[in-house]
Amino acid sequence: MTAVFRDARIAFDLDGTLVDTAPDLVRSLNAAIAPDALEPVPIEDVRAMVGRGARALIRRAYERAGREIDDPTLEARLDLFLDVYRADIAGQSRPFAGVEAALERLRSAGARLSVCTNKPAALTEPLLATLGLAGHFERIVSPEHVPAKKPDPRHLAAAFGETGSGRVMVGDSEPDVLAARAAGAPIVVFEGGYSEKPAGDLGADRLFAHFDALDEALAHALSRTS
Ligand SMILES: O=C(O)COP(=O)(O)O
Ligand SMILES: [Mg+2]
User: Fold this and answer.
1) Is there an atom of ligand 1 within 6 Å of 118 CB?
2) How far apart are alpha carbons 151 and 62 in whole angstroms?
3) Residue 1's pLDDT is what?
4) pLDDT of the residue at 51
5) Counting Cβ atoms within 10 Å, is residue 213 exposed (0-12), middle (13-18) or buried (19+)?
6) Candidates 117, 131, 144: which one to mutate for ligand 1, based on the most atoms within 8 Å of Cβ?
7) What pTM, to 2 d.p., does this model score?
8) In order of start, what are the domains of the chain with their CATH numbers?
């Protein structure tokens, strides 16, 4: 099975795909909305609110409470969120079970790995470094590095880099699937991640429930396109 990975470009989403960041995201989000006396958002709800960046996460917390937020307040709450989050970015966040072993296997089989995330670079880099994951990736592409973020396919194209023997995205939510479709690349979706819609409704080429099963899902997706 491993021949299909030689020189393949595999781009990974971060929040909800590589790392279970929800506990630290919810703690920081609830600190950021506290000045406006919003009820704390429960962690299960946050899992359906992540995927379109930090600003969107805060806006969604206000929408959920039926409250309006003006732009200057949003920027102030974003600053607070970023300060709280950055101060203990990997307090409870951990790679999902089997992630490190899967990254090792794919690299040993010759795959070229990247991260394609809507998480701001100032958060992505310390998170991956703190968890010891950064060294697996040839490219780590946050929204600041590209003209537009996922679902825009230019974000994913930047993560893939030059054409390899095949290209595939691994993600957990709709922006990932839309970016892959628009880039003409297959996508496999992690069922344990964060998504507004059920993973099975996103239109993935293949779903996987544990990283031990990632290689098989990727091999299937790659063999259909190369
Ligand atoms: O920060 C977010 O909202 C999403 O990040 P992701 O693209 O890695 O899922
Ligand atoms: Mg995600």
Assistant:
1) yes
2) 23
3) 61
4) 83
5) middle
6) 117
7) 0.94
8) 2-18+96-224 (3.40.50.1000), 22-87 (1.10.150)
